[in-house]
Amino acid sequence: MSTVELVNLDILPIGDVSSNDLDVIASALRDHYRVDVSIHAPYSLADLPEGTYSASRDRYNGNELAALAGANGDGELNLVVTSADLFAAETEHISEKTFVFGCSFLEGNGAVMSTHRLKPQGVRSLLSRGSNELVTNRLRVQAVKHVGHMIGLDGCTDATCVLAQSTDLDALDEREPRFCRSCSRSTTRFDVVR
């Protein structure tokens, strides 16, 4: 009987990311992919290279942090999880976005996701019932999505698919961390989708 080898996935926390959030993310990734997850010791936002922070936006460049994950992680796949607010700079593949929940490169080895906008804040947090369950689902969806992009799964037009674009929390909250039928059957560069 042959054994499927696990792909090494390294999580790099940057900023004030709770151990509970990291455990939720690691668990989601193990549930959906054949990966061996390791979690690095946390980095401080102050340790980030110059150019990753935009003072005019008061946000960090998600593209730069995704590249940083790929360059500094120890895994075949590397995911930065940060508490920092992110934007996406314009590239040849995407237009600039004022804020994003995360960034990943299709078939790259680095991605980033932010917990900053996933947690209820202000009045919304007072009105949110079951906010812990909402936050847990958001963390799981974003982690599964960005690792999906790293292994070669592109964005999806099926609104229920984890790979569908989420431009706001309402759209994100409609999703579960599951692939649609078409995406679950797609060939990827690693045979890791469960």
Write up this protein.
This is Archaemetzincin. There is one protein chain. The protein has 194 residues and is of the alpha/beta class. The protein has one domain (7-153): Collagenase (Catalytic Domain) (3-Layer(aba) Sandwich). It has 6 helices and 9 strands, in the order E-H-E-E-E-H-E-E-E-E-E-H-H-H-H. The strands form 2 sheets. A 5-stranded mixed sheet has the order 2-1-5-9-8, with helices on both faces. A 4-stranded mixed sheet has the order 3-4-6-7. A hairpin with a 4-residue loop joins strand 3 and strand 4 (59-61). Helix 1 (19-32) crosses helix 4. It is globular, with a radius of gyration of 16 Å. The two termini are 18 Å apart. The model has no long low-confidence stretch (mean pLDDT 87).
Distance between the termini: 18 Å
Rg, please?
Answer: 16 Å
The low-pLDDT segments are none
Sheet of most strands: 5 strands, mixed
Q: What do the pLDDT scores average to?
A: 87
CATH topology, by name, is: Collagenase (Catalytic Domain)
**Strand composition percent:** 15-25%
Fraction of residues in H or I helices: 25-40%
CATH architecture: 3-Layer(aba) Sandwich
Tell me the strand order in the biggest sheet.
2-1-5-9-8
Count of structural domains: 1
Q: What structural class do you assign from the helix and strand content? A: alpha/beta
CATH evolutionary superfamily: Collagenase (Catalytic Domain)
From the spread of the alpha carbons, the general shape counts as globular
**Strand tally:** 9
What's the order of the H and E elements? EHEEEHEEEEEHHHH
CATH C-level class: Alpha Beta
Number of helical segments?
A: 6
